[in-house]
UniProtKB/TrEMBL annotation, chains A, B:
<dbReference type="InterPro" id="IPR036390">
    <property type="entry name" value="WH_DNA-bd_sf"/>
</dbReference>
<feature type="domain" description="Transcription regulator PadR N-terminal">
    <location>
        <begin position="22"/>
        <end position="85"/>
    </location>
</feature>
<dbReference type="Pfam" id="PF03551">
    <property type="entry name" value="PadR"/>
</dbReference>
<protein>
    <submittedName>
        <fullName>PadR family transcriptional regulator</fullName>
    </submittedName>
</protein>
<dbReference type="InterPro" id="IPR005149">
    <property type="entry name" value="Tscrpt_reg_PadR_N"/>
</dbReference>
<dbReference type="InterPro" id="IPR036388">
    <property type="entry name" value="WH-like_DNA-bd_sf"/>
</dbReference>
<dbReference type="InterPro" id="IPR052509">
    <property type="entry name" value="Metal_resp_DNA-bind_regulator"/>
</dbReference>
Length: 110, 110
DNA sequence: TGACATACTGTGTGATACATGGTATATGTA
DNA sequence: TACATATACCATGTATCACACAGTATGTCA
């Protein structure tokens, strides 16, 4: 059905969280996040992002507010201090993983 | 229950596949992989790794053979050409993600 | 003998990416 | 005005996966 197999899909899972936490240093709404990431070569499905945003808010990593109540509804999200702490630990994990992969790559390619 | 939250756990998902595909350029068995990764600061649960190995073999990315049939059974896995191709595309994804994260980090931290 | 390490397997459970389908407003254009 | 398309979000369902829990069986060492 899909071009991208499961193994490739799995690569997105942790990554999207981290990207969102980095991006939302400035307040943005869901649809906008999808477009901005798209322009940077990162494809995130709407139906992946919206639940993720709600989940991150539920856990205290993001805060949100509705904008322009009478116009087209936009829900702006922004990272909280708790979210910054989470971002920090995810970044650490990311970097440790990067080191492991680089080390292994050198072994394989030599 | 666990120290590590879901957001942190999610970081492992794509990563483990890639590490295994890199590591198995040399034939190794499951229990050995867990120990080797452990020594490199990467914690992979046995109950995560064993199914992953079977899954990768099922999809043709790994081949396996049982060793020493009458002694303690060890199942040696090794990457196939198909697995190398998969590894290549996962590495590409990894690098693209790395670029995206680095770009965002610079924006956030400046 | 018995504790512990080694080596693997089967069956849950909960979380999540993505699919499908839907609501509602805004905007461009014929 | 009519109608398509873009914008912006949500609800529900399915498949997959990390990890928990529990078990089998052999090897090793005190």
């Amino acid at each position: 059905m899909s071009e991208v197999h499961n193994f490739e899909k799995e690569m997105n899972r942790g990554f999207i969280q981290l990207v969102v936490l980095l991006l939302l240093e400035k307040p943005m709404y869901g649809y906008m996040i999808v477009r901005v990431l798209e322009q940077n070569g990162v494809v995130v499905d709407e139906n992946t992002l919206y639940p993720l945003l709600r989940r991150l808010e539920e856990k205290g990593a993001l805060s949100s507010r509705w904008d322009a109540p009478e116009a087209k509804a936009r829900k702006y999200y922004q990272v909280t201090d708790q979210g910054r702490a989470l971002r920090g630990s995810l970044l650490e994990i990311w970097q440790q993983q990067g080191k492991a992969i680089e080390a292994l790559r050198q072994e394989v390619e030599s």
